[in-house]
């Protein structure tokens, strides 16, 4: 086993231990070895991949101080507000099932019916293998939700952003995006060849400065923001972004992956939350994997855009059509969401309760609105990983988010709330978090504990 020689080495290694791979895109460091290897060595060894050795070192450092790997845990049941891992019950805060629709009888029933009628696969691209009625039904339902001309669904939320942005923009164009935008948007921008400019999180004034200085240098411009931000649980001032996109002649795209089912009285999304007409946004993007308890992504917008993407976006044209049961499940989940706004209300009550209790205990919840995503910022990677580990030992499953997914000083635990958590469960969780954090902060420092365990 590779062992760090000094506690500081262990700390540095741990600081980059758990990388949330759905988080921000970091520029890849230039490969250390650019020359051909000596004749007796092969570069074609996967263990020589840039970063692989570092990954092993990080794991070894975590093993050294007895921290379990918080990722890739096998859940033995449908993971919602509760879960089972290793035969034990946990309160679960690592599920996107915001409205408790995964496993809902209407949703599972729709998926079963679709399997009976169409099997499990759409077999090939819809252009080649043709449509299934469920594709069109889901696209019509999503277009109706946003009041757009049309919609296109794709097999992955991540791929939807990559391929749609990659298809819409070209080299003479520019994309302006929030500094905390999802990796898939950045990757799509890179694919497109357009200039990429990021502005400070949730800061329309910062965007305005950028627009004023650079908009004239480019042909087309796309502004991309999210609905509910997945790391911080806050939301943008949509009206301010609409005003800017009009004034500077840009398209505005909202990735409402975490806003659908969460934001607004009925969970309609960011537009309902902000009291803005959905038609003021040019492109509505979302995923089926969160509130809609399925898998895939969608773009809703004007008919020319939808027709264009269906005929030119590589991630649609050259990729299989959505599996019929997944399309049916998402459509059924959207119907339940729209018919039962009390689920959205329960989620809001739960999030609000968690936030209020956390604040009462003096925990740092950043800018979270207290809805589906609530961070507890602890300010140090090692503390975040250790706190997550200690909570796991007390029956709470919650993920640490550390550098480079977030800046080191804002390392955190991220709690995903659902409408199905109970008030008692939430109260018990927040009290336990406060106890364990206080024990961590008042006990021996983590570095001291690390040194003691190594007999230093
Ligand atoms: C804001 C945002 N956009 C896109 C995606 C990608 O969606 P999916 O995981 O469904 O592929 C995610 C995933 O977490 C996300 O948070």
Q: What does this entry look like structurally?
A:
Pfam families: Aminotran_1_2. This is 8-amino-7-oxononanoate synthase. InterPro entries: Aminotransferase_I/II_large, AON_synthase_class-II, PyrdxlP-dep_Trfase, PyrdxlP-dep_Trfase_major, PyrdxlP-dep_Trfase_small. It is a single chain. A seven-stranded mixed sheet has the order 3-9-8-7-6-4-5, sandwiched between helices. A three-stranded mixed sheet has the order 1-2-11. A three-stranded antiparallel sheet has the order 10-13-12, with helices on one face. Strand 1 (about 80-85) and strand 2 form a beta hairpin. It has helices at about 5-15, 50-65, 105-120, 125-130, 135-145, 155-170, 185-190, 205-215, 240-245, 270-275, 305-310, 315, 325-340, 340-360, 380-395, 425-440, 445-455, and strands at about 80-85, 90, 150-155, 175-180, 195-200, 220-225, 250-255, 285, 295-300, 375, 395, 400, 410-415. The protein starts with 6 loop residues before the first helix and ends with a helix. The protein is built from 17 helices and 13 strands. Helix 5 (about 135-145) runs parallel beside helix 13. It has two domains: about 105-340, Aspartate Aminotransferase, domain 2, CATH 3.40.640; about 340-455, Aspartate Aminotransferase, domain 1. It is α/β, with parallel strands linked by helices and about 450 residues long. The site of pyridoxal-5'-phosphate (PLP) has 15 residues, from helix 6.
């Amino acid at each position: 086993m590779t062992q760090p020689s000094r506690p500081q080495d262990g700390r540095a290694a741990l600081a980059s231990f758990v990388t949330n791979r759905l988080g921000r895109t970091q520029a890849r460091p230039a490969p250390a070895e650019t020359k051909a290897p000596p004749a007796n060595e092969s570069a074609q060894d996967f263990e020589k991949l840039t970063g692989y050795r570092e990954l092993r070192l990080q794991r070894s450092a975590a093993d050294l101080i007895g921290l379990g790997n918080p990722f890739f845990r096998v859940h033995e049941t449908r993971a919602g507000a509760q879960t089972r891992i290793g035969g034990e019950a946990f309160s679960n805060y690592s599920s996107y099932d915001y409205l408790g629709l995964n496993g809902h009888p209407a949703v599972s029933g729709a998926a079963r019916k679709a399997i009976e009628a169409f099997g499990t696969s759409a077999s090939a691209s819809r252009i080649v293998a043709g449509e299934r009625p469920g594709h069109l039904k889901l696209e019509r339902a999503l277009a109706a939700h946003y009041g757009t001309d049309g919609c296109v669904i794709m097999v992955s939320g991540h791929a939807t952003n990559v391929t749609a942005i990659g298809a819409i923009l070209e080299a003479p164009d520019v994309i302006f995006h929030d500094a905390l935008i999802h990796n898939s948007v950045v990757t799509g921008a890179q694919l497109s060849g357009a200039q990429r400019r990021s502005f400070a999180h949730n800061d329309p004034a910062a965007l305005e400065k950028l627009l004023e200085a650079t908009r004239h240098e480019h042909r087309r411009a796309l502004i991309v923001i999210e609905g509910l931000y997945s790391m911080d649980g806050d939301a943008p001032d949509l009206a301010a972004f609409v005003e800017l996109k009009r004034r500077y002649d840009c398209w505005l795209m909202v990735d409402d992956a975490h806003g659908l089912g969460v934001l607004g009285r009925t969970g309609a999304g960011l537009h309902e939350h902000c009291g803005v007409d959905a038609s003021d946004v040019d492109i509505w993007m979302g995923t089926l994997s969160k509130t809609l308890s399925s898998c895939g992504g969608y773009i809703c917008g004007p008919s020319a855009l939808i027709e264009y993407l269906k005929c030119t976006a590589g991630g649609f044209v050259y990729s299989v059509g959505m599996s019929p049961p997944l399309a049916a499940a998402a459509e059924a989940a959207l119907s339940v969401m729209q018919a039962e706004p009390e689920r959205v209300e329960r989620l809001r009550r739960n999030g609000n309760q968690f936030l209020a209790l956390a604040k009462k205990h003096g925990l740092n919840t950043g800018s979270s609105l207290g809805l589906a995503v609530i961070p507890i910022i602890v300010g140090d990677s090692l503390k975040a990983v250790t706190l997550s580990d200690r909570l796991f030992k007390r029956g709470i499953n919650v993920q640490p988010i550390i550098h480079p997914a977030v800046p080191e000083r804002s390392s955190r635990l991220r709690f995903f709330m659902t409408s199905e958590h109970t008030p008692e469960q939430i109260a018990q969780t927040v009290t336990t978090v406060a106890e364990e954090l206080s024990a961590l902060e008042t006990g021996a420092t983590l570095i001291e504990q690390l040194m003691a365990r190594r007999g230093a």
